[in-house]
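I hope you will forgive my troubling you with a question about protein structure. Could you please explain, in whatever detail you think fit, how the structure tokens follow from the sequence? Thank you for your consideration; the sequence and its tokens are set out here.
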Amino acid sequence: MKKLFKTFGVMAMASMLMLGSACGGGGTESTVDKEGNTIIKIMFHVDEKSAEGQAYKKRIDAFNAAYKDQKIKASASYIARTAGAADYEQKLTGMQNEGSLPDIITFDAPNCASYVKSGLIYDISNIVPQDVQNDFISLNKYDGKLYGLPIQESSAGFYYNKKIFADANIDVSGYTMENPWTFDQFKAVCQKLEDAGKTAVDMRLDATKDETATYLLYPFIYAAGGDFLSADGYTANGYFNSAATQSGFQFIKDLVTEGYTSYAIGATDFFDGKVGMYLSSGWTIPDLDNKYPAQFPNRDSWGLLPYPKGTAGASATGSWSFAITDNQHEDKTQIKELLLWLVTAESSKGITDATGMIPARKSVETNYAAGSPEAVLLSQLEKTGRERPATVGYPQFSNNFRQVIYDMKTKDLATVLTEKASALQAELDKLKGM
């Protein structure tokens, strides 16, 4: 009986090992289904039913049709960021620890260095042909190597309600990328809106639970002449708490102190006509075009203004990208086919038509009308777009940035910056020693 039990145990263990390999649970081979298709697993960061999720689904379905005879099939999962981008990123870390990473993931561009450091994403320098690399507006690189390809490009600005501005006798037609408005002119517009009985601007100060606040607000620090980290990404002291950096944060705090914005603006207050301006990215364009006809029946009812200029011009950029994971599937040949399919000019156009963002590929014909919100975003991206800090400690940086935004509403700003610079430095020192 003992011999029989031992034999059964060995067979069961062998079966489990084979199953683990077939399912991609840390094995070196990809999954093969009963029809003989090699399954390439990909995970998206959005709800499948969203406009963006549906755009991805169309590209996956098209890939499966095109590669049917080659016995390659993509299997997509959609992990919506129900608790923000950080929630999605924690899921990725958990999958990495479990050995259950899919073959391809979407990831937020500023996390590139951190993911490389942790071994989560794979060097694709020799996988992506040089002519393809040259057609991207930007690439996700770290230490001279390529790790990700952007899905789309992003920029942000101030959407404004033209009726509210007209009623308040505010003319902003002269504020363009060629003639940017200044911090002082921005405040002057806010004062006129306040005089007209409106909350001037939603600065998205309530968005500190995830990357949104960092993405939309970091350009004000660069525009004020400040910085966050040293060039190598490992020193925060003297940068994160410098006088110039404090000046950028102070501009944001002044908007609160002077009553132009607050931490308690409702999520739809701008769309309901209660707020004059709304800081957001290109993803708001489809919403204004389609979801709020009462306040915004057409594009003549709203406009988009670029970021104001401080001592320099700076605007938000950097968006989500595709990466191949370092999930121990040694042969990346078929995985590469899906990666390259998802970033073709056709894919780039199809996805950005749904999201309102800027295509990542230069070869995509945009034909944006002069003065259109898309044209404003593209021009701003080209002229003043500045990426968030490239550092292996980006998650730690973003967390401390968001804590500054949250804490400065009730605490002395200089004290907060000193505390957060020290906290961030301690975390960076740990990462440098790893």
